Amino acid sequence: MPNPAITLSHISKVYTNGTIALTDFSLDIGEGEFISLVGPSGCGKSTVLRIIAGLGKMSAGNIAWNLEPRKLAFVFQEAALMPWATVQENIRLPLKLAGISNRAACSAVAEAIALVDLQGWEKAYPRQLSGGMKMRVSIARALVTQPEILLMDEPFGALDEMTRSKLNSDVLNLWLQKHWTVVFVTHNIYEAVYLSNRVIVMAARPGRVVADVAIAAPYPRTESFRSSSPYHEYCQNISHALANVPAPHSATP
User: Fold this and answer.
1) pLDDT at 1 over 50
2) How far apart are the first and last CA of the chain?
3) Which of 58, 159, 181, 244 is the S-S candidate for 163 at Cβ 3.0 to 4.6 Å?
């Protein structure tokens, strides 16, 4: 495993209503790795991302950083674009909020647009874009800050399979170029295996790691990998791990 970029140790999260979202969650995330979190709804996958991003507080545990946590970007489930702003303006938003002038931000915005293949759409508004293009804008808005760590929370869940497959390949190519550390949340086992170095299987509430599956297939990965025997074997192993997740811990009477 590469040097750890982030180490989560014995993380627990209990909400004010008493719901235990995570318990004793520990995970080493290697520098430059592409890691996917899979598990049933409500197992705390998104909670893990939010804690890493500083958008939520843990109740117990510790996070150790070997990369700069400020060089982190988050891609959410919904593109959440400003409808009154152009593609260019939506992508520039994080730099504007950081106090960077339009002139200074110009080259970074242009690079982000090129990375997600949206040249020619700079002046378009969200209403003129397909779902896949809106997600490309959302990804570009994250990339414009030139992050080292990229957190992605089911970004392609609402897209059709053809668009999703294309964006999977595009994100993978970007990762190979930029060497980010990526933590990706998905319900889709096939997507997780295609993208990842490792797939982390989580148990239902309270969320915890029950399997850490290394995907040893080499990169770059193409469509031929999706039809290969190793690919289907990895998918079956993860499906089996999910089907055999132990029941949540019961409280002692």
Assistant:
1) yes
2) 41
3) 159
